[in-house]
Amino acid sequence: MNIIVCVKQVPNTANVKIDPKTNTLIREGVESIINPFDTYAIEEGVRLKERFGGMVTIITMGPPQAEAALREAISLGCDEAILVSDRAFAGSDTWATSYVLSRAIKKFGPFDIILCGKQASDGDTAQVGPGIATHLDIPQATYVKKIEEIKDKLGRVERLVEEGYEVVEIPLPCLLTVVKEINAPRLPSLKGKMRAKSAQIKSWNAKDLECNHKYIGLEGSPTKVVKIFNPPPRKGGAKLTGEPQEVVDKLVSMLKADGRI
Amino acid sequence: MDYLLNEQQVMIRDLARQIAREKIKPVAAEYDEKEEFPWPIVKILSDADLFGVYIEEKYGGTGGQGLELALCVEELSRACGGISLCLAATALGTYPIILFGSEGQKQKYLPDLAKGKKLGAFAITEPEAGSDAGSIKTTARKDGDYYILNGTKQWITNGGEAETYSVIAITDKAKGARGASAFIVEKGTKGFNFGKKEKKLGIRASATRELVFEDCRVPKENLLGKEGMGFIVAMKTFDKSRPGVAAQALGIAQGALDLAVNYARSRRQFGQPISSFQGIQFMLADMATEIEAARALIYAACRAIDAGSKDIARISAMSKLFASDVAMKVTTNAVQIFGGYGYMRDYPIEKFMRDAKITQIYEGTNQIQRDVIARTLIKEAASK
Question: What is the pTM of this model?
Fold first, then answer.
């Protein structure tokens, strides 16, 4: 089975700071990690390899330092890694990014399954996975919590939905985005780390991928970010204390004064 | 602090540290309380390839030596000095095969031990033969293609859990110390059974059992080295393994210091954190200094041994002696810094003190270490 896992390198912080002038994330001084949701995609890819044989190829689009994320993925059991990197990709939105990744996957050749995390912890759009499937014109299942079976080029997966889960059959080749319920990612092994250290990482740029320049970078991105800001912290409400009757009376009169009732 | 470690040694240290922090620390108190063997952690260490850090690549290891093992044991012991023993005691049981095993024995046993698929153990101690190892009574009588083992080994770390045992037994009583031989005995061999599991002061996640041999027939291919080499096998094994015990002690001491520093910063008395008192500061400073000295000695010992130095008994004994004494002192002072809370089992620090004590006792008491060191000094002077 030929498995591809797409990952993104993100800043390791819950409190992303934004540069008010450029509307972009401030990355200085923040450690980079593999997008936490993607670690489940990596683990599932390695488990599929262990179940069905084959190999796992990891792909990321990003600056040259994103190579660290690829090496980490190799230490976790992935076999090969491709870095898709070019200054021309800078400013790509989810549409342009999924276009570039789909070009890379086309160049890579035949595959059976593409795995992605359900979304990235920085942008939180959950659009790149579905975007890749659309560009490649293959079926997709999002929010997958279990891959039940893969037989005769047909996958049977469970999709997490609000009320429970759906069981979906999906023909291969396909793309799945996974949720954290799908597995518990393993720790790296020493031999994996040693292999990662010396692994050859392929690097492809816009020219290698024969990208249409109208579709990449800031210009190729239909999304325009007008403004990004941290929402102001919520202020605490008023607290009423006293006997129940007293408090209820007070609340009713306050709501009336406020014109709410 | 840069310890001049190579790339692979840094990887081993960091990986062991990550496992200790994320997987061992959260469960250490529970295993201590229940006195259970930490099989889920064995699986994690096995998957991480840490069981083979001191074993050659051709036998399934990652090609390191004693320093790699010490780094690994040190980091694991920072979280739990008992759980780290599943790996450290396997190494003790494996060294006789590395040092004296034939090519066939190495190929048969080392890959599973390197992978952590099987655990190892070493057995010399008996009820009446502790420091006086020469008085062991377990016998191995040759009978055609077999040796027949009879006797009881006591306090064997990993006993009952391990699959592969290196056992010292007497093949020729008349020859005294030169009449002992070493054997590989596999769990499941007929006539090889286990006695009671000991209840211990510390390292309670580690299993300590009796091994009972009753007409246990061991194939003659399982003899390590030659007949009569049993004590040489044991002594050379200890020379290699003692820095591992020292590393366990070092990790326990470091773990206790880590906790003590944090506690001193958060515990407030007289309106301020107790870390602002010079009395506490001086204790912490001394603890850190002694730990660093122990680390320097252990790493130096490992490097000398790994480089193939000839007379390693002295430096090996010194590292075990010094580090274990430091561990006992540091953990005792760490409990002191925690005060009344430190004495309570709700807090993690008393366990470190209980775990530290064994490092002054096993693989040769610290009195035996001093004896080893002194004998090398006197012998050296006499030979001049």
Answer: 0.87
